[in-house]
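# nightly structure sweep
# worker-07 picked up a monomer target from the shared queue
# config: single-sequence mode, recycle default, output format = structure tokens
# input follows
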Amino acid sequence: MSEAEILPDEPEREAPPPAPAPRRLYRHRLATRLWHWVNAVTVFIMIGSGLMIFNAHPRLYWGQYGANFDHAWLVLPRFPGWATIPSTYSLAIARHWHLFFALILAFALLGFMIASLANRHFRERLTLRRAELAPAHLLADLKAHLAFRFHDSADPLAFNIFQKLAYIGVIFVLLPLLIFTGLALSPGMGANWPWLIDVFGGRQSARSIHFLCMAATVAFIVVHLALVILADAVNEVRSMITGWWTLPDEEEAS
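# output follows
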């Protein structure tokens, strides 16, 4: 017998199982993505130019009038050039930038709202349910956030309660307040719509509310960017560009 006949056959090696394909979900509609990136540019320029305008008189008052000898409820130092647009003092240029992008902010918000009503984005993603507002649910969601577990929901496309509250606050409260207080500060609009100034309790009150809303918007942006980084920046940013989001594996999510 030949050597080949007396040697035992080698067991066949099993091919490794194919790697499971990543679960890709269509998470962000085109209207949402366009509005997001338009806002990213618009808000950045409006904050910088707004801080330059604030530098012209860095005091805030309540009521109709405000001058150097009136009592200011907040006095801040002037913001440095790296935080303002333009970087060197120019009130006229800052106003041009601010007013131009204010129009973009207002009409982009209006377009997004119309699109979100038409494609049911608000109803599907931002509807508040009674069970979500229960203290036990809020506490469980808070604990998940503190543990950096961002994908505990059974529906990976659903926003958690804190996301819903934050987005509702920004879309329906902060941005409209910024727009209407900005209109109240405009001399032309104040002359045509004097009632708008009265709604906010005076021009200086409108200016104070405008500044506070800007500060709240900055705080939202900081928290938003921090959570994007913690949740997987590459996946989150890619989904906001293409619309497609990859569901993390269970091991990776844990």
